[in-house]
C-alpha cells in the first residue's frame, strides 16, 4: 500500500510502483515566505483474491460498471460538498487519499469492510488532529465519504463498535475470535473466510491500520499477537508489517509538517501585530503634528 516520502501515503498495486507529486488544490492563502509541503503518493493494490465458486449473498455488494464514477467526479463531489479553503498541510494529503481511495472503491472486487473503516477513520483523525475547527473537521469527513458514495455515519459507527470491542479484549482473547460468538467476532470470521478463499477480499493499507488499532486498544503489545491475529484472519503478516512501518512514518512526517505550519502561523501573526502597532504609532504622531498650536498672550 503506501510508502512515504517527505509527506506521503502509498499502497500496493498489482503493477510497479509509481510516484506522482501532487500539489494542493486549495492553498493556505498567499504564502509570503514560500511555505510549502510537498507530497508524493503512490498507491498500488494487491492482496487476496478468492475464487467465486462458492460465493454467497453479502450485504455490501461489489461495484458494478453501471455505478462507476470517474476520479474527476469524485473530487468534484468533494469540492462541491465542502467549499471552504483547507490549509495545504491537510488538503494535500486529503486530495491524494481521495484519489487513491476512489480507485479502491470502484475496484470490481471491492466490498465495504468494518476493519477497513476503522483504519480509514484512524488515519483521518490522525491527519486532521489539530485542525482549527472541530466542526469543519467533521464536515470534511462527511464530504469526503459522501463523495465516494458511501455512508460516513456507517464508517464512524463501525469504527466506534470495533474500538469499544477491542478495549474489552486482552492479548489472548483478541486472537480467540474464531471460537467465540458476537457481532464483531462474526465480522472477523467473515473476513477470515473471504481472505482464506471463500469470497472476495482485497487487502489494503487501511485494513492494516485497522488491525493495528485493534491491537493498540487491547494493549496487545507483544509482537507475536499480530502474527497470530494475521494467521487467524488469513492475512499475510509481511504486508501488514510493511504498511504499518509506512503508517508510522507518515504520522511522524505529519507531526513535523504541522509544527512548521504552527511556526509559520505564529510568525505571520507576530508580523501583523507589529505592522498594526507601527501603523497606530504613525497615526498618533500624524494626529499630534496636525493639531493647531495655540499660544497664550
From TrEMBL:
InterPro entries: Thf1 (IPR017499)
Coiled-coil region list: 247-274
UniProt cross-references to Pfam families, sorted A to Z: ThylakoidFormat
GO cellular component, one term: chloroplast thylakoid
Organism superkingdom: Eukaryota
Record carries keyword Nucleotidyltransferase: no
UniProt record, GO biological process: photosystem II assembly; protein import into chloroplast stroma; protein import into chloroplast thylakoid membrane; thylakoid membrane organization
Entry-linked NCBIfam families: PS_II_psb29
Protein name: Protein THYLAKOID FORMATION1, chloroplastic
